[in-house]
Task: structure prediction
Amino acid sequence: MKKNFVEELKWRGMLAQIMPGAEELLQKEMVTAYLGTDPTADSLHIGHLCGIMMLRHLQRCGHKPIILVGGATVKQAKIRNCFIGVILFHALFITSPLAGQNMFNNPSVGEYFRSFLAYGIIVIAIIINLKNEKERKLANFKA
Result:
């Protein structure tokens, strides 16, 4: 049974108001939603996690989330790392259902693992980048 995205957000206290017809659309068909964020912003706070969590709930309800990450990826990216990242990310889409099928006789298990792994790596990369940026600012301040 497909979960109701709007009811999930209301239950969690994450929804105050909604556009007329949005709940019906979300129940009727799969919707793609995106969130753009800059994890290197000076004003980054725990509230930024709310949007990411909302996309996760959207995914659990059968919809398609997309996260656009700026700042950290632009500042630190090197062409070689980008190619490696793209290859590894797409390899997850190929291997995770196969791994789930081979280990648990259920490709969905592999898909859940892929989501956990992909988003976990993104969060770890953001945390590492924020720590490095803070250290660079501190070093520049002392100099």
Summary: The mean pLDDT is 76. Helices lie at 5-11, 22-28, 48-60, 72-76, 79-104, 107-142. Strands lie at 32-37, 64-69.
